[in-house]
Specification:
Layout: H1 13-25, H2 31-73
Helix pairs in contact: 1-2
């Protein structure tokens, strides 16, 4: 599909009203801009969620070993203090 290809999407009446309402609230020139902005937001949200999931998995993977190391070194925290 070339970059100047025209495309049309048929939406149910409730979704058309939503697009038109968002167009007014966001002061956009066209319904297409509403859809584009929504797609960009969805992409950003999806990327953030994937990043959150990766951090969560990494945290789970290192949690036990980090806690064990802290416990092993805890006795040194007060060493040399009077």
């Amino acid at each position: 599909m070339n970059s100047n290809a025209k495309s049309s999407v048929t939406l149910p009446p409730a979704e058309i009203r939503l697009v038109q309402s968002l167009k007014k609230r966001l002061k956009l020139k066209s319904n297409v801009e509403v859809v584009r902005r929504g797609l960009r937001l969805l992409e950003e949200t999806t990327e953030r969620q994937a990043l959150r999931d990766a951090y969560r998995a990494a945290s789970r993977a290192t949690r036990r070993s980090a806690a064990r190391e802290i416990e092993e070194l805890d006795h040194l925290s007060g060493e040399g203090l009077d």
